[in-house]
User: Fold this.
Amino acid sequence: MDGFDAVVAAGTLRSSDPGAVRFPHRWTPEGVSVEAAFTGAHLLHLAAAGCVLNDVYREAEGMGVPVAGVRVVASGGFDPETWASTGIAYTVDVDSPVPERHVRALLQRVDEVAEIPRAIRAGAPVARVET
Assistant:
């Protein structure tokens, strides 16, 4: 099963869809827009997309790359028998006045440091704890 898309956007690339949910955001005064169904599959992808968006702003600041807007789409599938993830793929659009090579360098840095994608790549035990 594929197609569990999660879309997050901020700045000039925020969604104008009235169904998008809006959240405050540390780096943008208008906040972020989120387009995703409320299922476990979508939420997993939303975590990855949201982390990448945040890290674009954080790393851009450190690299001196001005960012007017960011849009991240994360999607993937699941094995229908086991519900194991078949992987997550994401795309990033960045609205910036700098040359494309600077944006590519920024996105390479983000891919290296984004915490949620790194955690998913590494794997982690998940356990229910009795309350």
Q: What stands out?
A: The radius of gyration is 15 Å. The chain has a mean pLDDT of 94. Strands lie at 6-11, 21-25, 28-35, 69-78, 85-95. The first helix runs from residue 40 to 63.
